[in-house]
Amino acid sequence: MPQGRLTREKGIQYHQSNVEIASLIASHFAWGRRDIILSKSWELLRRMDLEPGSFLQNASALEWRRLEGFVHRTFKDSDVLWMLGKWSAYLIEHGSLQGMFRGATVKDGLHCYASLMKDGLQPGDRIRKHFASPAQGSACKRMNMLLRWMLRSDECGVDLGLWKIHSMSDLHLPLDVHSTTTAMALGLLPANAKPNWNAVERLGIEARQICPDDPALLDFALFGLGEEAFRSGFPLLDFLERTLKGE
Question: In this prediction, what percent of the chain has a pLDDT beyond 90?
Fold first, then answer.
């Protein structure tokens, strides 16, 4: 979101640590209805006085208690406190959160983040489910979406392009059930595909055939086609056929 709109409508100051934290919160919360995702993301940010960067680096123990009682779907307040505590320690030491996703490849970077966030948790701890890794076969939809926001940039300014730890050309698409279905309908994935890491890598190969330098651009098409089909009331394959015919 452009700096002016964030400052004017929400009052949050636009600097990198605020953007990193707000983006990570939104991506972790991103399943279900979008209005609820946005509402709960802003609720958590307001509990940090719309200065999450300063809060995570300077808040007192009493101020941290403002986060108690926050709940979003399966996120309990104890989960949120663990998550923000990890970001806080890393931000204080390194000044930015992008290093949490550092690795030789995007896949390595996603595994690095999951490993850092789960460090110190017991094997059966319920909090571990919030931090998926491609090493366990997960499509890592929400974190691939985050990396698209933070790494990708274009002339339209849709994504932020703040991080430089990976190249835009190395990005993967954020794959879920809906985008998998659309990709199958377009012949970009086989008919039996599931939204897992194998499908992410396979779709990445196809996306780089279309947009070698900007494969994540295909995310807009997959999401948009699925949304338009839903709004049209037609089954996806019928909608795609009608679209190709110009109907």
Answer: 77
